[in-house]
Specification:
74% of the residues lie in helices and 0% in strands. It is mainly alpha-helical and 321 residues long. Helix 1 packs across helix 4, helix 4 runs antiparallel to helix 5 and helix 9 crosses helix 11. The longest helix is centred in the C-terminal third of the chain and has 44 residues.
């Protein structure tokens, strides 16, 4: 999931790639441990509600830090960095794909279906809905990156099952199982990306009254990012829990999505579908807001720099001739 584009179809491909890639790298460096904590909480089937405080904290400690639960602070911190290589490949490619790809889908909708959106949603809301719909399409297409995401999650939640194996051996072992949960991932990404892009676009257009999203200030981008991130995380939470549990299991432990849903309802109750939601909003939310804001700032800024350099070069050539 990722931020809406600047709203300017003239942003260059170079600006979109550099801006989105930079956002992915910075997000990875600052938030990988946080992502690990969230994934382990979502994958855990242990109940902590109803237990005495000390017992619930002991369970949480075991779930989050696994084999490092009884070790020192530094060892616990290091234990939150499994699968960093897979995470780097996934996160940077994901951000470049979504941040860089969504503007092109939005441009396509704007060029070919603008009148359709205007007739359905009116002039006031058509632009926001095009941004949201473009985000949803790109979110569904994100399943092409699913193997990297699956490897990252497996290392974060079930690393002991792959001890001693390198990346190629893990891929060979899992095979097409790395695409397990593709349907659930697409089902999660469609509404999640719709809410993320739509929430941010709605904030910019109807709260800040911006015609050109690329002219948003840092604070406006930040506020739009918060709105989009909270909406996206909340709406996609149940499907995200199911997706995480599907991907976390090894090939031998594999279960189908509907089996997981049935077991969750029978053993953990309806609330299990929102497991980890509060820490995810409080801890993972800032990660999404951070990358959201960085991309929205960098893409139009880099585009303007490229345009200025191109204009200077053109002027120099004209002067010399």
């Amino acid at each position: 999931m990722s931020p809406p584009p600047s709203g300017n179809s003239k942003d260059s491909a170079t600006a979109r790639l550099i801006g989105s890639g930079s956002a992915g790298i910075l997000e990875l460096l600052g938030f990988h441990p946080v992502d690990t904590v969230a994934k382990r909480l979502m994958n855990s089937q242990k109940k902590v509600t109803g237990l005495p405080f000390s017992e619930s904290m002991a369970v949480m400690n075991q779930v989050i830090f696994k084999d490092a639960a009884t070790k020192g602070t530094f060892s616990k911190y290091i234990s939150l960095f499994p699968g960093l290589g897979f995470a780097a490949g996934y996160k940077v490619m994901q951000r470049m794909y979504k941040f860089g790809g969504q503007p092109y889908v939005n441009d396509f909708l704007n060029k070919n279906y603008k009148s359709t959106f205007q007739s359905l949603f009116g002039d006031r809301h058509s632009k926001t809905m095009m941004h949201a719909t473009a985000g949803s399409f790109v979110g569904i297409g994100e399943i092409v990156l699913l193997p990297l995401d699956a490897l990252k999650i497996k290392m974060q939640t079930n690393a002991q099952a792959y001890a001693g194996l390198n990346a190629f051996q893990i891929v060979r072992k899992e095979g097409w199982g790395l695409y397990r949960g593709a349907t659930w991932t697409a089902a999660r990404n469609a509404p999640g990306s719709f809410a993320l892009f739509g929430g941010a676009a709605l904030t910019k257009e109807h709260i800040f009254k911006l015609e050109d999203y690329g002219k948003a200030t840092f604070l406006q981008n930040f506020a739009a990012s918060i709105a989009g991130a909270v909406a996206s995380i909340t709406i996609s939470a149940p499907l995200d829990v199911i997706k995480t549990r599907i991907q976390a299991r090894s090939r031998e432990q594999a279960e189908g999505g509907w089996t997981i849903v049935k077991n969750m309802l029978a053993k953990e109750g309806l609330g299990s579908f929102f497991k980890g939601l509060t820490p995810k909003i409080l801890v993972v939310g800032p990660k999404l807001v951070f990358s959201f804001t960085v991309a929205q700032q960098l893409i139009p800024m880099i585009s303007r720099m490229i345009d200025e350099d191109a204009a200077a070069v053109k002027a120099a050539i004209s002067k010399s001739t």
